[in-house]
Write a structure and sequence with these properties.
Layout: H1 2-20, H2 26-40, H3 44-77, H4 84-96, H5 98-105, H6 112-122, H7 126-154, H8 158-195
């Protein structure tokens, strides 16, 4: 039991750190932990989801506070702000429908950081952010845990399930990223054609 609690604490720490420093593959960490839990004790999957969601939530709160306090200058210095045009469209979507945008942002690879930045720069109230981000983090953790359970259930050895879960997360992330890039390129081409 002590080792499981230690592993859950590490998962919380990794996900919280990854939410603040968005280079750590937090989804893969939750998926891998869920794949291991599936083989060790399936009821631990619920605790994996809780630890992943709590870590994501804590990290998002820290990042949101940093963005609210430091503004765009801090976001540029930390290299969180990369695409000003995309940020403008996210700000516009947030102004029209705050809660749905916040809920979906965690599920889209590369969607969380622009939405957090836009929300902070628009001055979205803490209450709205805190309330909307809680189910978003829980849903995100459950989805990545489900990917881990699928990977863990296919293979007989826990390490094979972890590798399968991580590979599946990487593939899904890359496919979504490619689709988003193509959609953005089409949108730019359409805009250029309309202005010509």
């Amino acid at each position: 039991m002590i080792s499981e609690l230690g592993a859950l604490a590490w998962l919380f720490t990794v996900v919280a750190f990854g939410a603040i420093v968005p280079v750590v593959p937090t989804g893969a960490a939750v998926s891998g932990a869920a794949a291991l839990a599936f083989h060790d004790h399936p009821l631990l999957i619920v605790l994996v989801i809780a630890a992943g969601a709590a870590g994501a939530y804590a990290g998002d709160l820290v990042m949101y506070a940093m963005c609210r306090a430091g503004g765009e200058q801090l976001a540029r210095r930390l290299r969180w702000l990369r695409d000003e045009e995309h940020l403008a469209s996210v700000k516009e979507r947030l102004q029209h429908s705050q809660i749905p945008v916040l809920l979906v942002s965690r599920l889209l690879p590369g969607g969380r950081v622009p939405v957090l930045l836009a929300a902070a720069f628009l001055g979205l109230s803490w209450r709205t952010f805190v309330v909307a981000n809680l189910p978003a983090c829980a849903l995100w953790s459950a989805v990545y845990a489900a990917i881990g359970v699928v990977g863990g259930s296919i293979f007989p050895e826990p390490w094979q399930g972890v590798i399968a879960a991580v590979v599946l997360v990487v593939i899904v992330t890359q496919v979504v990223s490619m689709v988003n890039k193509r959609r953005a390129a089409r949108s730019e081409a359409r805009d250029a054609a309309e202005t010509a």
